[in-house]
Each structure stands twice: as structure tokens, then as C-alpha cells.
Amino acid sequence: MAYTLNATATSTASEDDLFDYIFSRVDSMDPDSIADAAPVLAAYASDSGLVARTMAQSMRSILDGQPPPFVAPQCYVIARRRHIMIRANVWTPLKQTGALRKNEERVYSYDTAHDHNFNFLTIGYFGAGYRTHIVQIDPSQLNGEIGDSAPILDSEVTSLPKGKIMLYQAHRDVHRQAPPDELSISLNVLFNNQSQISKCQYNFVIEEERARILSYTSASIHSRLSMLAEMAVMVGGDELMGLFNDIVDAPLLPPRMRLMCLEGLREDQAAYRGAMERLYADESDMVRLHARSALSQLQ
Ligand SMILES: [Fe+2]
């Protein structure tokens, strides 16, 4: 289950203090070592002017003609060093009705259950906090196809009020946020490892006993790379065809991107068959199953 951590700020910590702690003590792939950073995050979040300063900086840079420094209108990058990003998320109650309300829900991803392909530590910075339904799954139970599902191992309905710290584990903690009753802000520390780029993020339907994959999240790097491959296959040509083989054979790249490029090899039957034979024992369930079934159809 997502960890709820007890830590109260007894001192303050600067951005440098937080990064120094993370880079010297935290293994980004180990949730327990990330959890140990909770007191430093609490100390960092005790700076009551932090988010206003970040927003002012964003607005100033827009006035100076710089590109908007936010990920989305409600999500501000405070700092980024190597694979660690600190972000502020603003959560507002839904004000609108009808079509505009749908827009707001989409911007905030309210009521869409999803996972992330990175671990992240979060603290309520301001307000009563969003409400959230979290279910835990074992990601190894999923093969990654739309409609595939995994049993729900644990479930919790909670919120993120000011001062509360939680650790969401990559792929395990599927969550669906509901709007807060009042303006709320959370700070997130994202642990984005390069090795996770190939890992997909999904939208889920939470059923009584299972979490079922509804779709792929469109904002993830995974989806963007897969779309790039899809377009490259449509464009075609010798230069791109030469790259498709390399991408098919790159296990760190997203399975959907690799499978798109496999499709791109179809015009060259020998290359297509050769690629599928190499993928027959691939580590990715999705790639392996697809290659085996496509190969059996050729025979
Ligand atoms: Fe999320």
C-alpha cells in the first residue's frame, strides 16, 4: 500500500539540503530508502513562501518571453537535478458545471485511476488536500494489453492534508484523485530513473476485486515515444527502416514503441521475420507474446 509517513518539521531545509540528502542517501528504486527522506521533505515544506515564489518566478519568465515553465497549468516544476524533480501541484475544487467541468476534470486528472512509472514522495503543503482512492496491485500480474487486469491486494480511501507525507510506489499504487473541498497544494519529489522510461503508465478501471487497464496515459514519455514510432512507420523510407531494427532490439525502450517499429519492418519480410525470432524470448511480456503470435501466423 502507499506508505503514510509520520514526520513533522522540527527544523528547516533548503533545496540544496533536500537534494544533498537524496543524492547521498536515497536509492531511487528502493521505497524504504525514499521513505527515510520524509523528515527532510517535511523540513523543506515548512517554507511557507516556497510555492508563491515558484509561481512568481514562472510568471516573470513568461513576461520575459520564456516558454511556460509548468508541466500543466496546475503543476509547477520547482527544481530538477539529474533524475530528481520537485514539483508543486495545485488542487482546486471543481467550480464549473457541464462541459467546462469535464475540462477541469481532464486538466486535473480527477476521477481517472492511474499509476506512475516512478516512485514519488508527496507532502500536503496547503489546505485540506485532495481525496484519493488507492488500490495496490502487483504489476508483474499485468501483461500490458488494454483490458488486462490484476487482483487488488489492498485498498484505501484517504486524503493529503497539510503536513501529511505519503510515498506512492511505481506501478503498485493505482490511485484516483477527487477534488478537495478547498484550494490545496501538494509538493512532490519524483524519482525518475532512466531505466523506467520503458515502463508504461496506464489508466485503470477499478472494479470490485481487480484493476483493469482502460488505456495508456497520453502524457507519459512512453506514449509520446510510441506515437513518434507510429508516425515514423507511416512516413517510412530507407533511413527510418534502418532504425526500426535497432529500436526493436532496444530493451530499454517502451514495448509499444518497439512493436510499432516491428510493424515498420513488414515491408522487408526477411527483416520482419528475423526481428520476431529475436523477440521470441524477449523480457517484456507484451513484446514476447506479440512476437510469438505474429510469428505463428507467418508459419
Ligand atoms: Fe497520479
Explain how this protein is built:
The protein is globular. β13 (202-206) and β14 (210-216) form a beta hairpin. It folds into two domains: 3-216, Jelly Rolls, CATH 2.60.120.10; 221-298. The strands form three sheets. It has a seven-stranded antiparallel β-sheet. Strands 5-13-14-8 form a four-stranded antiparallel β-sheet, with no helix packed on it. A three-stranded antiparallel β-sheet has the order 9-7-11, with no helix packed on it. The protein is an alpha+beta fold and 299 residues long. Helices cover 37% and strands 25% of the residues. It binds fe (ii) ion. The site of fe (ii) ion has 3 residues, from loops. Fe (ii) ion is lined by residues 114, 116, 175. This is HEAT repeat domain-containing protein. It comes from Lysobacter gummosus.
Write a concise synopsis of the structure shown:
By secondary structure, the chain is α+β, with helices and mostly antiparallel strands. It has ten helices and 14 strands.
- Under CATH, the topology of the largest domain can be stated as Jelly Rolls
Low-pLDDT stretches are none
- Give the strand tally: 14
Question: Can you tell me the number of structural domains?
Answer: 2
In N-to-C order, the SSE pattern is EHHHHEEEHEEEEEEEEEEHHHHH
Shape: globular
The share of residues in helices is 25-40%
Number of helices: 10
- Return the CATH architecture of the largest domain: Sandwich
The CATH superfamily of the largest domain turns out to be Jelly Rolls
Largest sheet properties? 7 strands, antiparallel
The helix-and-strand class reads alpha+beta
Bound molecules: fe (ii) ion
Protein name: HEAT repeat domain-containing protein
